Amino acid sequence: MSSTAIFEHSYYIGNYMSAILYGVELAMYYATVHSCNLSRAKDRFFALYSTILLILLTIDISTNAFWGEQMWITFRDAPGGPPAFIAHDLSVWYQIVGSTSVVVLIFMGDAFLLYRCYILWRSDYRIIALPVLIYFASFALAIVELVGAYTPGGNFFQGRALIFGTTYYSMTISLNIVLTLLICGRLIYFSRLMRAAFGNEQGAAKLYSGIAAMLAESAAPYTLVGIMFLIPYAQQSPTANVFGQLYAKFACLSPQLIVLRVAQGRTWEKDTVRNAETSVSLGWHRRRNGVSVPFNGTQLTDIPSSTKVNVTKASCSSYDVTTV
Most buried of 41, 245, 270, 278, CB within 10 angstroms? Predict the structure, then answer.
């Protein structure tokens, strides 16, 4: 099978899988907006952020579908057929729009992951210093890669565009790997800390730090698909087309899933991180005294930051919650 035929097969498969993932994004977008309390500024931001993600993904899906229609239907009988179309029309203007929308999707998603990592690590700038530098460096490379791919005679899979593209995707996927490891490590830390304090009773720990929560919070699927795309792309394999389309979709789906969890109150926030440590302190105190203390993990971790928790050391049979 020729490389052009492999390209067509991969493009076709990628389009179909992208359509399925687009349906998933529509469902998550509806659930997110439905869960948002638009009277709060934070939720309005999340609704706007989700809307922008959906618009960018729609542009990407539409341009890929239209380009496929032009290749296989409109210009099917043109001299040279689809192979000639691929050679001469890979850099048409609407493909530029589609590729630019993907780059913006990636940077919006990475920015949100940086923010989530910052929150989980208790707003420690030192933790995200290196990831932020990688983020801005990859942004500059993305611009160079787009210019090289879509200038006259440019090709996304060849020449300078391939060189800069490989460097760009290597950096941005490396950023995803670093953030995924930082977020997973932090969630594992919280999970073990709460398990040590409360044994198997901590429903909140499972809610916030279970395997599903780790996969969602760390955007692990996004990182894995990025690696699957980078390898064939660097080798100039036409199969990169499938994984490239999937990578673009997960650049939208992964941050959208995190936003949905935030809107539903199922993820770590600044107050949740701070109050989880209070919960752990209570749990250790209870276990040391060997008595039963009324504990509801979800309620305790939802205590506002303006709340002071006092434990009665004499009996440890209750604790007082007062607002300061």
Answer: 245
The pTM of this model reads 0.80
The predicted-structure confidence for 256-313, as pLDDT tens digits, reads as follows 999 998 888 877 776 666 666 565 555 544 544 544 444 344 444 444 444 444 433 3
Note the Cα 172 to chain centre separation in Å: 12
Is the torsion defined by CA of 314, 316, 319, 324 positive or negative?
positive
